[in-house]
Amino acid sequence: MTSGWTLLDHAHEALRTVVGHVPADAWELPTPCADWNVTQVLQHAAGDQIGYAAFLTGEPGPDENPFAPSGTLPADPVAYAEDAMGRAARAWAGVDRAAGEVPVPMPPNKMTPELGAGACAMDAAVHAWDIAVATGQPSPLTPELAAGLLPVARQTAEAVRGFAFGPALAPEAADDDIATLLRYLGRDPHWSRP
């Protein structure tokens, strides 16, 4: 299922690929989200995708608080992620692109359709990166995806600093769009497992 929003579809593909390649023994590994392991980042990412769908359609939200993930690994992590992304994709596919604004779970809880779909994409893509680097996979962030997400990050992240995103890290001269995006969202682009 695709959403019809290019940025979101690419972000979903990034998350899908990364979750599908997590080794069976890697779900408890630490991640760039300091308090969460790989399972918890998966739960958070899936819960956020369901949250976007729920805001758009009025359907039920996630079963647990995405910001307090239990750490209980779903029986089929790939199917779990796929269900969440499918719900978000179906919801965004039904959005009128000409609408002035749509409801979203991220403050201020209303955004233009393009910005809202971008925020949903940013969440999926950045958490795909978190899971990838925690489990020794290549970064799923392409230069094109990062370049598309940077304007979204700059328009949305400040409202949730200290809650959803940490303080921005200082940029470095050699940063490309991927590193710039990650630093802006409080992540060290060179993070490695302790």
TrEMBL record:
It comes from the Bacteria. One of its GO terms (molecular function) is metal ion binding. Residues 8-132 form the Mycothiol-dependent maleylpyruvate isomerase metal-binding domain. Transmembrane segments: none annotated. This is Mycothiol-dependent maleylpyruvate isomerase metal-binding domain-containing protein.
